[in-house]
Amino acid sequence: MTGGDALRKAAVIVPVITIEGEPYLILTRRSRKLKSHPGQISFPGGIRDNGEELWETALREIEEEIGVDRDSVLFVHCLEMTETLVSRIEVHPFLALLSRRVFRLNKEEVEELIFVELSLFQRTKEEVIRLPSGEETIKYRLPGLVVWGATARIIAGSIDEILRKLSESGHINPFDED
Which one of the record's GO molecular function terms can you name (predicted)? Predict the structure, then answer.
């Protein structure tokens, strides 16, 4: 890449809802009809439009992909950026709480919503994957589901921060121990 080439930027929302007192991440399975990353597990999000702020991109995409009204998305925290290793896109994740559980899937982009208890990622050790390019990424092998690449790296790199920010915000208490 030459010095003048900038990576394309994307924004995703790392959406959390509470079910029976437990925090759950909402993941999507991308449509198998898509040219980019078909069938993969991801967070709602996409490529930034010219001049658009990244948070705006994330809000637009969560509305377009899974029908979540932006008024029900409560920003919590900016998480650490990662880069997709194959398509070379800079992905900026935003942790957010959803105040309503109303979803309308855009079937052209999203095949299904997947709700995963946050603690499952804490209990599951990530595995290293070596890509054909020689680069390494990670995956989580969950019951009936594999989460890998940028999505897995966002989760692995920020799970403790997610729990801390959710606790600080007063929306959950993930540290209830007997």
Answer: metal ion binding
Assigned token pair, 130: 């070596």
- Domain map of the chain by residue range? 8-120+158-168
Report the C-alpha gap between 36 and 55 in whole angstroms: 22
pTM: 0.88
23's tokens:
């925090």
What number of other Cβ atoms are within 10 A of residue 8's Cβ?
13
45-54 pLDDT, tens digit each: 999 998 899 9
The residues near 101 (Cβ < 8 Å, ≥ 6 apart) are 17
Alpha helices in the chain (DSSP H): 54-66, 118-123, 149-168
Residue owning tokens 């998480």: 79
Provide CATH code, domain 8-120+158-168. Answer: 3.90.79.10
